[in-house]
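User: Some background: our group keeps a shared notebook of sequences we're curious about, and every so often someone picks one and asks for a predicted structure to add to the entry. Today it's my turn. The entry only has the sequence so far, pasted here. Could you supply the structure so I can complete it?
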Amino acid sequence: MRVLVVEDARDMNVLIGKILKKAGYSVDGCFDGEEALEYLMGAEYDAVLLDVMLPKLDGYGVLKRIREKGIETPVMFLTAKDAVADRVKGLDLGADDYLVKPFDFDELLARIRTMTRKRAGSHSNCFTVEDLTVDTERHTVIRNGAEIPLLPKEFTILEYMVRNQGIVLSREQLENQIWNYEYSGNSNNIDVYISRLRKKIDNNCRVKLLHTIRGVGWVLRPEETLP
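Assistant: Of course. Here's the predicted structure to add to the notebook entry:
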């Protein structure tokens, strides 16, 4: 999953980014409201952590503008402003959660999980397709009772696909999940990860789950194949 951290205190921005990356997230960071809008207009995110007091454009203004543009990415305010009126204002503008500084990082991670699964229409951190189970909190993948070890980027791709099971996902959508805004590497790398992932989750299984849709992208859905 890809998260945008908008926080003008650079040390805090970097620290939050490190915590999120350690938890398996792909992270972009920016330091003012106008920069945040550029990021949000130019890429897809699964969640935004948004400070209220920002240079150039405050967090309320950022949220108001992206909601007006139809961007429904889950947004959590991270702020020292703890008055009820401030929280009500943020929630009324379309925020999904509000966490007051200072906060515990375990609570932050738990709230991100809750916020994103609510938006996905799920009540659990576990997702299943056929006999495949992906636990996004414990970062475990099990198929047919056996645990499958995945590299971090392989897990990120599979998590995105299982959250969007049955939907054909483009190369750009998958790339957005595993690389940050500044990445400019070889786009064929996604083919390598998909190939490795397919071998790991579909090897020796009658029902194949990861399918290539030529000229469009890839989809995770059960499809029985002939022996």
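Suggested note for the entry: The chain is about 40% helix and 25% strand. The first strand starts at residue 2 and ends at 6.
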